[in-house]
Write a structure and sequence with these properties.
- This protein is mainly beta.
- The protein is about 5% helix and about 65% strand.
- It has a single domain, classed as Beta Barrel (Porin), CATH 2.40.160.10.
- It contains two helices and 19 strands.
- The longest helix is centred in the first third of the chain and has 24 residues.
Length: about 375
């Protein structure tokens, strides 16, 4: 081969290799950066017992602000980070949550219908977990906490997702995960109210969604098992959630029901909700929901173990869409049971062979909120 032809071919190869790198380096890094944020701010007041940090005297110290950044490394790879500021009024959980928290921080790679996330990822758990703080897409200030709880909003580890088209308009999405997460709750016991914070490790499981071509219907099934470590003990928990949603014209229906069981100490919680949102006119909707938590009490005399209705709630809201996509809501909730921000006696009296429940308590609270996002 002549020197001229050799030089020409070498130059062509170099151009093919260096051209994409030159284009990438010439691209302004800001062009590969996306910023998203949301604010959900409210004023709340209860009539008797405090609920979710909403006291009888009222509070405006109630909000969630999220800021998310996405940076594209390549056409298939990106890094995502999300921080958020959360204020919970007078909730006993307020002391267990920092003012600013790194909610997500992960690397994502997409290859066709397969997605891999590594780092602190959104945990695929039910219909609303990933948008639990985004008030512009929720009919209430928050998802039903009876099922959601203040836990499992992220997983430190790996999430693998696969999406498949099954034909005839049916899609199947399957996600698997492994890692660790956090669990926080205000628990009602025979001695009062306790704030419980735990780290869950060796957590593994999956979430499947089946999308149907009728009524925008989606069915979901979540299952997970994890080690459970808290100051009072350690053990294992299993969590299963079944989900369903559908939209017919102006009506959207959602329902989820789950169960958490475990050992060390023994645990059996069952919870769920039914929710409906109706768009009456273009800029005004109404929503209603019912939610519950049933919990098993355990005693030294196992014959006394009993499942009881810990919480029953009913809520209603009016939703107004404002200019710029902001949303204003006014919602009212009725709550009955034993789970409030202040202690409520569950077991009024006890003998070695029997016990009696304390009286159930009632409380109402309202929230007026504005949510906006960009």
């Amino acid at each position: 081969m002549s020197p001229l032809r050799l030089a020409t071919r070498a130059g062509l190869c170099a151009a093919l290799v260096l051209a994409p790198l030159a284009a990438a380096s010439a691209q302004d890094p800001l062009d590969r950066l996306e910023l998203h944020g949301s604010l959900n701010a409210a004023y709340g007041r209860s009539d008797t017992l405090g609920v979710y940090g909403i006291p009888q005297k009222g509070t405006s110290d109630y909000r969630v602000f999220t800021l998310q950044g996405r940076f594209a490394l390549t056409a298939k790879d990106q890094v995502v980070a999300q921080v958020f500021n959360r204020r919970l009024g007078t909730s006993p959980l307020a002391g267990a949550i920092s003012d600013v928290t790194m909610q997500w921080a992960y690397w994502q790679h997409r290859e066709g219908d397969v997605t891999v996330k590594v780092g602190r990822n959104p945990l695929p758990r039910g219909l609303l977990n990933e948008v639990r703080y985004i008030g512009t897409v929720l009919p209430f200030f928050r998802p039903p906490m009876e099922l959601q709880s203040d836990a499992f909003d992220a997983i430190d580890g790996v999430v693998l997702g696969v999406r498949r088209e099954l034909g005839k308009g049916i899609d199947l999405e399957q996600l698997a995960f492994f890692g660790g997460s956090e669990w926080r709750a205000v628990a009602t016991t025979s001695t009062g109210t306790q704030v419980r914070v735990a780290r869950t490790e060796n957590m593994f499981g999956g979430q499947s969604y089946l999308t149907l071509p009728v009524a925008n219907a989606r069915l979901g099934l979540y299952g997970a098992r994890y080690g459970f470590v808290q100051p009072t003990g350690r053990g294992y928990r299993s969590n299963v959630i079944a989900s369903a949603e559908a939209t017919v014209d102006r009506v959207k229906l959602q329902t989820e029901h789950g169960r958490i069981t475990g050992y060390g100490p023994s645990n059996d919680n069952r919870s769920g909700y039914v929710q409906a949102t109706v768009r009456l006119v273009d800029h005004f909707s109404v929503a209603g929901q019912q939610a519950y938590t049933n919990r098993k009490l355990y005693f030294a005399n196992t014959a006394m173990n009993r499942m009881f209705a810990e919480v029953r709630t009913v809520g209603a809201s009016g939703i107004v869409t404002l200019p710029g996509g902001a949303v204003a809501k006014l919602e009212h909730h009725w709550r009955r049971g034993y789970a409030f921000d202040t202690p409520v006696t569950v077991v009024a009296s006890q003998t070695p062979t029997s016990f009696t429940f304390g009286p159930r308590r009632d409380s109402r609270y309202f929230l007026a909120s504005v949510a906006a996002s960009f």
